Structures are given as structure tokens and as C-alpha cells.
């Protein structure tokens, strides 16, 4: 089975570069419809819609005025104008009870014909939660809550009558109908890079999102999470984030990368670095300005170069155990077709994201 390709959704305005350079910054629903339809038509397998209740990912101060579209309702609407592409909604557990998400998720899975998945974000943006009165938990507690959250989700999606007694959640005789289309349940994604994140992935998640990183760092994470999953008799699939600059020549791609870093928004980067200190493990090996310009350390994956070189590096990722590449582009509407024609065409064919049970 070949590697799969996913694309970031644009429900958070501003783009994915902390740079003053020109980039696609739109976050409107109309733009998201155009982007999702294009990715669907070209055969991309999934789109991930991030969650923000404050701020942005890239761009400048003016880009924040367009705000952030909710990833659950956005995905529900987009499922009606797409046919094949899988749609992943990021969710912060502190903002939505697992029973509520179980109901919403099952509904979207029905609406979409079994194309919805959840990406559980345990949370690193303290200010975002405290401004809405949500108690801030320390790192280990956030992951303990997330583990309970996933147990409740899975139980409500599978058991005729579900009971659960935990520190954060209690369910007595929960009867959720209808169940999702996908069996045993929609695939569960998560990110993180700490020991707690890896432990949770091995025990409960179906996919483990990795921030951008060189091959040796990714291999270490894959090995560690796979070992943890084996303890539970499970297997986990792996996806890596990458900001792609694929051009006709190596020189052209490198020059574009140089300009993007040269025009880095240092104030935005410093603000992000201060907030990201709560994200234990993530960004811990990022040291240069380039490491912070693209979202989720996207430049560190190294998909910068000629079409042939980018294809070779994707092949290397796949051989190392990466099942999917989650990609951001400077100009998605222009670059998605080019990537499909110039890079993807050089790789072996691949299939769509299976449900958790396949």
C-alpha cells in the first residue's frame, strides 16, 4: 500500500507561514469549498481542519480579523459538496464534552457517508483556554483527560449501553444512537511528541500525527509508539506534517525558501515560541528561524527541492514507516494540481484512509 496525501484545511485565516511574504491567507467558507472540491477532484485522501478559538497560525495581525471557522460545522457542510475525500476535525477536549462530540461526530459520519475523523488536540495554548474560563491542567493531567475522553467516545460509538467512571468523565447507561457508519468507529488521530502523547497513541489512537522533523527523529517516534502499541496488541499508523516547496529545480525551491525565511515575522515567531512552551516535547528540537516559519515545523521534514527530489524524499518517508504526509502549500489552488502531476505521479499508487477497524 502506497503513501497517502492529506492537505490542511483553511478554516483559520492567515495562511500557514509566519512570514511577511505573500501567501494564500483566505479563511472564508467560500474559499474552503473551492479548496476542498479541488482536493477531492484530484484524489487527495484527506483534509485536516485545525481548531482555534483565538489567534491564527500564520500571516500577520490583519489576517486575524477573518477569524476561525469551527472545524466540526465546517466539515459537515463541506461533506455535502465533496464525494470521496476524508475530512478530519481537530477538537480540544476542554471545549466540548465527549458525549456531545460522540453525537456530532456520528451525525457527520452519517451525513458524509463514512468520511469523517477526529483529531484530538490535548492542548498547549494556555491563553486560549483561560480566556474562556476553562481550567488549565498541567501536561500530564491534560493527557489523562484525553485518554478518558477517547475511552468515552469509543464506548458511546460501539456499546448498546455504556458506563464509565473516571476522574474527568462519568457516564451511566449512555445509549447513543445512531452509531457512526464506520466500524468499529471513525479513525482517531492525535499529535504530540511527549512520553504521555506517545503512550496515549499506543493505547488508544489509530493515527499519530508528527510535527515536521528529519528522518532520524521520525524513525525514533515511529519505533517508540509502535512499541507502546504492541504492548496493547494494537497497531498505529503514522502521518507527518510537511510544508512543501516543490519546483522545477532545486535552486528555485531553495531560493524561495530563503526568501520566506528572510521575510520571517520575528515578532509572531517569538510570541508563538512563548506560548508553545506549554507543549512539552513539541518544538523542543527547533532552533532556527526556519524551524518556526512554517506551521508545525513543516520545513524540517525537508520536502523542499525539485519535483524529483521531493518524490525521492517522500519515498524515503514511506520506507521509514510514514503512512501519510499532511501538506501545506504557499498557494494551494495552484500547487495541488502541480504536486499531483509532477510529484505524486512518480510514486506508487495509494489508497484512502481506512476506518479504525481496517
TL;DR of this structure?
This protein is 39% helix and 15% strand. The model has no long low-confidence stretch (mean pLDDT 91).
Characteristics of this structure?
single chain, 358 residues, alpha/beta, TIM Barrel, 8-stranded parallel β-barrel, two-stranded antiparallel ribbon, 39% helix, 15% strand, globular
Describe this structure in words.
The protein has 358 residues and is α/β, with parallel strands linked by helices. It has a single domain, classed as Alpha-Beta Barrel (TIM Barrel). Helix content is 39%, strand content 15%. It has twelve helices and twelve strands. It has an eight-stranded parallel beta barrel, surrounded by five helices. A two-stranded antiparallel ribbon has the order 5-6. A two-stranded parallel sheet has the order 10-11. The chain is globular. It starts with a strand and ends in a 16-residue tail after the last helix.
CATH homologous superfamily classification: Luciferase-like domain
Radius of gyration: 19 Å
* Number of beta-strand segments: 12
Report the β-strand fraction as a percent range. Answer: 15-25%
At CATH level 3, the topology is TIM Barrel
What would CATH call the class? Alpha Beta
Please estimate the helix content.
Answer: 25-40%
- Overall shape: it is globular
CA-CA gap between termini: 13 Å
Domains, number: 1
What structural category characterises the helix and strand content? alpha/beta
In DSSP terms (H or I, runs of 4 or more residues), the helix count works out at: 12
> Which strands sit side by side, in order, in the main sheet?
1-2-3-4-7-8-9-12
| CATH architectural type | Alpha-Beta Barrel
Quaternary arrangement of the chains shown? single chain
Mean pLDDT: 91
User: Which runs of at least 5 residues are low in confidence (pLDDT < 50)?
Assistant: none
Topology as a string of helices (H) and strands (E): EHEHEHEHHEEEHEHEEHHHEHEH
The largest sheet is: 8 strands, parallel, barrel
